[in-house]
Amino acid sequence: MGTTQLETVPEPKYWHLKTVLSEALDSDFAVGEVLPNERELAARFGVARATLRQALEQLELEGRLQRRRGVGTTVAPPRVGVAVGSTRHSWPGESADGWEAVDAAEAVPPAAVLKLLGTAADQPVHTVRRTRSTQGQAVAAELLYVPAASVPGLSVPGLSAVDAPAGAGRARAVLRELQRLDLDGQDRSVELGSARADDAKELDRLPGAPVLVVTTRYFTAAGTAAVSIATYRADTCRLTFGDSGDVEIAHDTRVAS
Predict the structure, then answer these.
(1) Helices 13-28 and 49-61, packing angle to 10 deg
(2) Considering the domain 80-249 in this protein, what is its CATH number?
(3) pLDDT tens digits along 223-252
């Protein structure tokens, strides 16, 4: 990786540096290789460390770099294609959707989720946690919010100790009851976000790392039956939407309308 003159470049220095670094990643580094430390890189390119950090953060956002605990900044492998919503009228957990149930509990959802559900804060809501892996790597963590009214077969408050005492069994019981309903449809949105502490731990990322947040609402004739908030690793995932025109969210971050 050679030096470059940035002073006369009209675009922001960090953006031009990002382009130079990206080219160097293709030619000078292998996947998984650790980059030199910030001080060495800043000196090599003749930039302030703040400028370098901006360029590195942008490359991480684009999935070219990964920050790994106890290792440093490494060259990321190509993003893994992850299908989202391949069956438009399918409940969570149906048709081996690739998610693994972890746990379920009754909890008050965040205000934004309550608004999507259209429920009051004092109404019981089952919160199911699931994770998704691809090629042995955790790529997503999900919180599925299911109002008690959507799963009347479960006792309220709490779940039946016979059907689901705890953990993954409890989560699967909620999913089974949800699948008894007639699904009328669903809508989905995608936005860029930052990993919360619990999601970061699940995904082996640093808190605040860029993630793709997929929000899905599931509808029955009675209204919203459940809301899913799924957090995908932005550095490793390319989301594909087969039922919405094969839209891919890749390095150019195209978004379906």
Answers:
(1) 60
(2) 3.40.1410.10
(3) 999 999 999 988 777 777 765 433 343 433
